[in-house]
TrEMBL record:
Residues 10-377 form the SLC26A/SulP transporter domain. It comes from Streptomyces jeddahensis. It is found in: Membrane. This is C4-dicarboxylic acid transporter DauA. InterPro entries: SLC26A/SulP_dom, SLC26A/SulP_fam. It is a multi-pass membrane protein. Its main location: membrane. One of its GO terms (biological process) is transmembrane transport. The gene is dauA_3. The keyword Amino-acid biosynthesis does not apply. Keywords: Membrane, Transmembrane, Transmembrane helix. It comes from the Bacteria. GO terms for cellular component: membrane. The chain crosses the membrane at residues 14-34, 41-61, 81-103, 115-135, 165-182, 194-214, 240-263, 322-352, 372-399. It holds the Pfam family Sulfate_transp.
Length: 497
């Protein structure tokens, strides 16, 4: 049996793995630096995403690694609890994901309002862009999302009078320009991913012009691995850390499973098994936690690159993990040449792509309530923080659903002679019961009344009982009792019945 007959797609998967590896390197390093941790921790998460999560069943073509979407949350966690405690947070979040996978709640993440998810990504995108503009200029960013945005005009003024900051900004802006323009070049050139080309050009420009720009600090792969110690585990007694852990678990899971749904639309291969994918993500994050690395999610940028490069099986993502491991082990010194503003430029571009510009206008035209949830979620994330912003969005979404679920319309047709016809449509719940009874009790008691309930999608017990009581008591003596039509069958409810 030849190698090709055993692995019929080896060539396609091998070539796809190279493309995914080239896309992953600048993103892994960029996300780590933006999260306030050593660059190598981003590579470790990418390696685990390939070699551990990549081998597991779930979604065969989506690729996992450190995500721009979690940058804000990780930075907040590292600022509050320290890099040493990051491993514990990621470890427990991974175990929570495993529990959710075993309890088969993976599919339930598909029920989360799309507006909340897009609002979450929009808010994250805004905070990433604002924060990374400071990094591109070599300036310290304010801690809060609002502070970052409000401080931008002052930061630009400071940068204009500082040669070092201007050189740094030029490298960041140049990186963004290369990524954007790269897509307009011939297909053969685009074989090299735009982000990688931009970082390489920025590195060459910095070295050739001897620019005074900060570069990535390198500590070596083994030097950054920091398994959680007893002191870090002791932090679990701090109630504040549990909000962060739950946020990591829920947001990483939501991002991964929404990414899986998006990747399924890109190919016609096997569909995602959501509960198994949750187990794969949980296993990956548990391992990342034990190594003290960044949390992982499935990443749409890498996953779409994998599909577009012609990957057919999970072999491509496993191989991409092998290439990341070889790179991190053999060429760590190459990282030390990368200018930090170039990585900031990559993340500004990634943050921009998280903002759903195309969806907002049509959403506003068709579903104003959903558009409002999206905007409020995004603003709350910028104004408060990631976790509470998402909770605000979810609460709004639930409130909107409850309001719509109790939507009810009563139409009365009175031709002056004959029976008065009343049509109820929508959802009759106890929330609308006072309004229903007020309207029905206002109907004339000395005329026959026909109440048609066939337009109701839902009639709860409280409403059913109240309608029966009203029908039994409404008609004056000597008047025909109220006729109630439920579906196709008229049901005469006699007085006193």
């Amino acid at each position: 049996m030849t190698m090709l007959s055993k692995f019929p797609y080896l060539r396609q998967d091998f070539l796809a793995s190279i493309v995914v590896f080239l896309v992953a390197v600048p993103l892994c390093v960029g996300v780590a630096v933006a999260s306030g941790v050593p660059a190598e921790l981003g590579l470790i998460t990418g390696i685990v995403g390939g070699l551990v999560t990549g081998l597991m069943p779930g979604s065969s073509l989506q690729v996992s690694g450190p995500a721009a979407g979690l940058t804000v949350l990780v930075f907040e966690a590292v600022s509050e609890f320290g890099v040493g405690t990051l491993g514990v947070i990621v470890l427990i979040a991974g175990l929570l994901q495993l529990a959710m996978g075993f309890l088969k709640v993976g599919r339930w993440f598909r029920a989360i309002s799309v507006s909340v998810v897009e609002g979450m990504l929009c808010g994250i995108g805004l905070v990433i862009i604002a924060g990374q503009i400071y990094a591109a200029a070599g300036l310290k960013a304010p801690e809060t999302g609002i502070g970052k945005i409000m401080g931008l005009p002052g930061a630009f003024i400071d940068a204009l009078s500082n040669t070092k900051a201007l050189a740094s900004l030029a490298i960041g802006a140049g990186t963004i320009a290369v990524i954007v323009l790269w897509k307009k070049l011939p297909k053969q050139v685009q074989a090299v991913p735009g982000a990688l080309a931009a970082v390489m050009l920025a590195t060459v420009a910095t070295l050739a012009l001897s620019l005074p720009v900060a570069t990535v600090k390198v500590e070596g792969l083994l030097g950054v691995i920091q398994p959680p110690g007893s002191e870090a585990l002791g932090e679990l007694a701090n109630p504040a850390i549990w909000g962060t852990i739950i946020a990591f678990a829920l947001i990483a899971s939501a991002e991964s499973l929404f990414s899986a749904a998006a990747v399924d639309r890109l190919h016609d291969g096997p569909r995602t098994q959501y509960n198994k994918e949750m187990l794969a993500q949980g296993t990956g994050n548990t391992v990342c936690g034990l190594l003290g690395a960044l949390p992982m999610t499935a990443v749409i940028v890498r996953s779409s690159a994998n599909v577009n490069a012609g990957a057919k099986t999970k072999a491509s993502r496993v191989l991409h993990g092998v290439w990341l491991l070889l790179f991190a082990a053999a060429l760590p010194s190459a990282l030390a040449l990368i200018p930090i503003p170039a990585l900031a430029g990559i993340l500004v571009h990634a943050g921009w792509k998280l903002i759903p510009f195309r969806q907002i206008a049509p959403l506003w035209r068709e579903h104003k309530g959903e558009a409002l949830i999206l905007v409020v979620t995004a603003v709350a994330i910028v104004a408060v923080n990631m976790f509470e912003g998402v909770l605000i969005g979810l609460a709004l979404s639930i409130a909107k659903t409850a309001w719509e679920a109790s939507h009810l319309k009563l139409e009365v047709i009175d031709k002056g002679a004959g029976p008065v016809q009343a049509y109820l449509s929508g959802n009759a719940t106890f929330l609308r019961l006072p309004k229903i009874l007020d309207s029905l009790e206002a109907l004339p008691q000395d005329r026959p009344v026909e109440l048609d309930l066939s337009g109701l999608h839902h009639l709860d017990h409280a409403c059913r009982t109240a309608l029966q009581n009203w029908a039994a008591q409404h008609s004056a003596p000597g008047t025909e009792p109220v006729k109630v039509t439920a579906g196709a069958e008229p049901a005469e409810v006699a007085s006193g019945a």
